[in-house]
Amino acid sequence: MSRLKIEVDPADAGLGADRLRRLDRALAAYVDDGRLPGWQLAITRHGRVAHLAEYGARDVENGLPAEGDTLYRAWSMTKPITSVAAMILVEEGLIGLQDPIDRHLPAFAGVRVYRHGPVDRPVTTAAAEPIRVRHLLSHTSGLTYGFHRAHPVDEIYTRNGYEWATPPGLDLAACCEQWASFPLLFEPGTAWNYGVSSDVLGRLIEVVSGQSLAEFFARRILEPLGMHDTGFQVPPEKADRLAAFYTVNPADGKAVRADALGAAALHRPAALSGSAGLVTTLADYHRFSQMLLGEGSHEGVRVLGPRTVRHMLRNHLPGGADLQSVGRPVFSEMPTAGVGFGLGFAVVDDPARAGVLASQGEYGWHSAAGTVFWVDPVEKLTVLFFTQLMPSSAHPLHGRLRQLVNQALVD
Asked: In whole angstroms, what is the distance from residue 164 CA to residue 148 CA?
């Protein structure tokens, strides 16, 4: 177990003390009026922790505070870790970004694309292009999530038990077999859609490496980086550190406890989700973010080469377009204009068009459970904000957080 500690005076890191107080007060208001149960925040500049703050509770009903070792469901912040794992295999020459995934996952040979028609009688045609490894990493595969509920293919996922979870008892291999049988939303490589791409990528990692996704993560990323509290299950001896899970009451916007949704983290899942399966701490994910800022290296441990990380941070959307042009809207605060997508991260290409205070090249990701992180290579800045509220888009939180962090930079 590790906790973050302040490593540099904020002023020496170019952060204004009065402006940090402004940031903390604004975030505290979300707890004071009941919109959030509690939160933790870490701001690191030039590799040194300059600001730590926490407020409210990890468990409101039992009066347990948010603390340095609190465990959080990372949900979609699992995706960047899965992407790094896949790029380890790329660096080893075991897979290539252009490889068709059916080379290792035969069920995806001959995938078909939805054209029109109702859910129970969809008209499909054979895909002109196979799903390739780079399509999984950039979410341009044509795969989807059931919870979008915006397209007949989404409904096919939902009817088969894929909405916020996978069907009970099915392992990752069985899930991939089913997903391969569903129509794609579009021709691979032609558009962007948030879906099970990272789950399929996780299965690809298993097949190519000969290890379970949990084993590969542990041996190649988590243990080398010292992320000892991160995994697919909270063990019994750590259960008291797990934050309670909350959803938003649509009537008043207040946080409401949702134990049924949160309990899954206490049990070993049948399907190890590369999209949303990990539980972690602020300190652990901080080490991952510092590895990214270090272009693949942290504290003498090299996970990826610097050129690999730089390639991941290029905009890999078709034609260099932004998410507004080629993406389907998702329930998210994330801007889509001026924002591209790399191999595992959203990347700000044009801050003015995006309408956010940000540097060009800033990248990161967030989750529907309230966690968010970003890395700013220009300012040598990393930011992590952890809470447990679904959906995080219910309040203008992540966008407000970005502007409040950036206003605190005064050098």
From this structure: 10
Sign of the C-alpha dihedral computed for residues 268, 271, 277 and 278 taken in this order: positive
DSSP string, 135-174: HHHHT-SS---GGG-SSHHHHHHHHTT-SSSPPTT--HHH
The 10s digit of each residue's pLDDT in 109-154 is 999 999 999 999 999 999 999 999 999 999 999 999 988 888 999 9
Alpha carbon distance 173, 206 (integer Å): 9
Q: Measured between alpha carbons, how far is 100 from 141 in angstroms, rounded to an integer?
A: 11
Q: Is 399 a residue whose pLDDT tops 90?
A: no
d(CA 195, CA 193): 6
Q: What share of the chain is helix, strand, coil (3-state, %, to 5)?
A: 35, 20, 45
Q: How far apart are CA 345 and CA 365, in angstroms?
A: 6
Rounded to an integer, what distance in angstroms lies between the CA atom of residue 31 and that of residue 29? Answer: 5
Distance, first Cα to last Cα, the chain: 34
pLDDT band of 332, cuts 50, 70, 90: low
Q: Can you tell me the distance from the alpha carbon of 364 to that of 376, in angstroms, rounded to the nearest whole number? A: 9
How far is residue 214's CA from residue 264's CA, in Å, rounded to a whole number? 16
- Nearest CA among 66, 5, 401, 113 for reference residue 242: 66
Omega within 30 of 0 (cis) for the link into 118: no
When pLDDT is cut at 50, 70 and 90, the band that residue 396 belongs to is confident
Nearest to 379 by CA among 354, 353, 351: 351
Orientation angle between helical segments 197-209 and 172-181, nearest 10 degrees: 130
Closest CA to 377 of 391, 363, 394: 363
